[in-house]
Design a protein that fits this description.
The protein is mostly helical and 112 residues long. The protein has one domain (22-110). The chain has three helices and no strands. It has helices at 5-16, 20-66, 71-110. Helix 2 (20-66) packs antiparallel against helix 3 (71-110). 4% of the residues are buried.
């Protein structure tokens, strides 16, 4: 005994259409993934700023010493360049984070 075609179609439709719980789970997974990726992106940006800071400080130190400038002057310049590079990088990180949050809020507000 076989099932009528319309009953088979209804069963197939029920199997394909997601349940309300599936939508909730999918939304929660997406939110957690977005949060995780945002945190990882922040960490990678901070590492990039740290490497850039060290490289700029070493560059100023090396060039100053190669040009036979007074050592205290070169050390001071190297520290100042490193500090300003680190501070400006952190400011850019924070500005980027605030801008991302603002854009997300605007998107949520304008979404129908």
């Amino acid at each position: 005994m076989t099932m009528p075609t319309h009953m088979l179609a209804q069963q197939a439709e029920r199997a394909i259409s997601p349940a309300p719980d599936d939508d909730l789970i999918e939304r929660l997974v997406r939110e957690r993934m977005a949060e995780r990726f945002e945190n990882e992106a922040f960490q990678w940006r901070f590492r990039l700023i740290a490497v850039e800071t060290v490289l700029m400080g070493l560059l100023v130190l090396t060039v100053g010493l190669v040009l036979r400038q007074p050592t205290p002057l070169v050390l001071r310049a190297s520290i100042l360049v490193s500090a300003s590079c680190l501070i400006s990088g952190i400011c850019l990180l924070e500005l980027s984070k605030w801008t991302t949050r603002l854009v997300d809020r605007i998107k949520r507000r304008w979404r129908p």
